[in-house]
Write a structure and sequence with these properties.
single chain; 2 domains; alpha/beta; Arc Repressor Mutant, subunit A; 401 residues
Length: 401
C-alpha cells in the first residue's frame, strides 16, 4: 500500500524514456541509441530499463495528493510498446494515484508509431501528445540528423486526427543551418495547416559536445544571423497569434484551453517528481538529477532502493527557491507575482527591481503593475535572458547584503 500522501506536495511526474533510433546533431539530452529497427516490442534493453524505472517509482514515497499531470519525455517515448507504457502507468497509479482528470502527455516522433500505437496509448489514459516534427523540409531534417522525413510527418498527423486524441502539440525548431526566413514562413504555414491544439517553437541552441557544437559557431554561416533568428521569432509570434494561438510562454502557443498543464508546473516553480535516466526531480526543496547513462542509472536505482527512497541532496535555501521562481516565471506571458519576493527581501527588493529594470521599463520591454512583473511580447521575450541576468545580479547583491 502507498504511504499516505501529504496535502501540499508534488502532483506532477516527469518520466524519462531515453531511447532514440539515432542522436540528432543538436541533441545533448541523456539518451541511448538503439538503431532503426528496434523498439519496445523487440528490445531487451528497453524492457530492462522499464523494470528499473518501475523499481525507482516503487521506492519513492508519495509526498502529495494524486498525480494531476504525467509527462513522458525523451528520447522517444513512442518507441515503448503499449504493454510497457501500461506497466509504467500502472506503477505510477499504484504508488501515487492518478486524478480522474489527469493530463497524461507523451512525446512522439514521426516514423516511430502508427495509428494502433496511438489508440493503444490513449486507451491507457494518454490524452495529450507532443509531436516532434522540427521542420517541414527533408533537406533540413537530414542536416539535423533526424530519423523521419516529411512524408512521415503527414502520416503521423493523419494518425493524430484519426485517433481523435483530445489534445496534441507540434514542435518546430528555428535557426537551423541553411534555414531561411522563407523556409520558416513555410514551416509555420504547414504547421498551422495540420491544426494542432498547441505549438512549441524552439530556437536552436548550439551545445558544445554535440556534432553541431563541434561544427558550427553561433551567428556564423551556415547558421542564420542573430538578426535573422530575431526575425524568425517575430514572424512566429505574428503568424501564430493571427491564427488564433495564444502566446502564453516564451516558446509556447496554444488554442484556448490547451495550455500544457504539466509544463506550467515548471514555470510556476512548483515541486515535481522526476523518474528515469537523466531526469531531475524537485521535491521537499531538493533538486536531484539522476545519472545520465544506463549503467550508472541502474546502480543509482539499487542504492536508492536500499536507502529506503532517500534522496541525498541539500535543501535549497528559501532565497534560492524564490530566485528560481523569478527566473522561470518570467517565461510566462502573465509574468510573476512579486509579493512573496517583497515579503522575503523587504523594501530593498522593490528598490533593486526598479534600479535594474529601469531601462526595460522605460522601453516597454518589461511591465510592472499591480505587484506583477512581466515581459512584453515579443520585444521583452526577445531579451529575456538579458533581463533575467540583470535581476539575478541584483538578487545576489541583496542576498549578500
Amino acid at each position: 500500500m502507498p504511504i499516505p500522501a501529504r496535502p501540499h506536495g508534488p502532483t506532477s511526474a516527469y518520466v524519462h524514456i531515453p531511447f532514440c533510433r539515432r542522436r540528432c546533431f543538436y541533441c545533448d539530452f541523456p539518451i541511448s541509441v538503439i538503431g532503426n529497427r528496434q523498439r519496445g516490442e523487440t528490445s531487451g534493453t528497453i524492457s530492462l530499463y522499464v523494470e528499473r524505472l518501475c523499481e525507482e517509482i516503487r521506492a519513492t514515497s508519495p509526498l502529495g495528493p494524486a498525480l494531476t499531470t504525467v509527462f513522458f519525455g525523451g528520447g522517444t517515448p513512442s518507441l515503448l510498446s503499449v504493454p510497457q507504457l501500461d506497466q509504467i502507468l500502472s506503477t505510477l497509479e499504484q504508488q501515487f494515484g492518478l486524478a480522474a482528470d489527469a493530463e497524461i502527455s507523451m512525446e512522439m516522433d514521426p516514423g516511430t508509431f502508427d495509428l494502433a500505437h496511438i489508440q493503444g496509448y490513449c486507451a491507457l489514459g494518454v490524452n495529450r501528445i507532443s509531436l516532434g516534427v522540427q521542420a517541414f523540409d527533408d533537406g533540413l531534417l537530414e542536416q539535423c540528423g533526424r530519423f523521419h522525413r516529411v512524408a512521415d510527418v503527414h502520416r503521423a498527423v493523419d494518425a493524430m486526427h484519426r485517433s481523435m486524441v483530445p489534445s496534441w502539440s507540434l514542435d518546430l525548431i528555428s535557426g537551423l543551418p541553411h534555414q531561411t526566413l522563407a523556409h520558416w514562413q513555410g514551416a509555420l504555414e504547414s504547421a498551422i495547416a495540420t491544426q494542432p491544439h498547441h505549438l512549441s517553437i524552439y530556437d536552436l541552441t548550439i551545445e558544445p559536445q554535440t556534432p553541431f557544437g563541434k561544427q558550427y559557431q553561433p551567428g556564423e554561416q551556415p547558421l542564420p544571423t542573430e538578426t535573422a533568428t530575431v526575425d524568425m521569432y517575430r514572424l512566429a509570434q505574428q503568424t501564430l497569434t493571427a491564427a488564433g494561438y495564444d502566446h502564453y510562454e516564451i516558446s509556447n502557443y496554444a488554442k484556448p484551453g490547451y495550455q500544457c498543464r504539466h509544463n506550467r508546473t515548471y514555470w510556476e516553480n512548483r515541486p515535481f517528481y522526476g523518474f528515469g535516466m537523466g531526469a531531475t526531480s524537485y521535491t521537499q526543496g531538493q533538486r536531484v538529477a539522476r545519472p545520465r547513462t544506463q549503467q550508472n542509472y541502474g546502480q543509482w536505482v539499487e542504492r536508492y532502493r536500499h536507502s529506503g527512497g532517500v534522496l541525498d541532496a541539500p535543501t535549497l535555501p528559501i532565497s534560492e527557491r524564490l530566485t528560481d521562481g523569478l527566473m522561470v516565471g518570467l517565461r510566462l506571458a502573465e509574468g510573476i507575482e512579486l509579493l512573496p519576493l517583497i515579503d522575503s527581501f523587504g523594501s530593498q527588493f522593490t528598490t533593486m527591481l526598479k534600479t535594474h529594470l529601469s531601462p526595460y521599463l522605460s522601453s516597454g520591454q518589461a511591465v510592472l503593475e499591480d505587484n506583477r512583473l512581466r515581459l512584453s511580447d515579443p520585444d521583452g521575450f526577445l531579451i529575456s535572458n538579458t533581463v533575467i541576468a540583470d535581476l539575478f545580479n541584483g538578487l545576489e547583491q541583496l542576498m549578500e547584503s
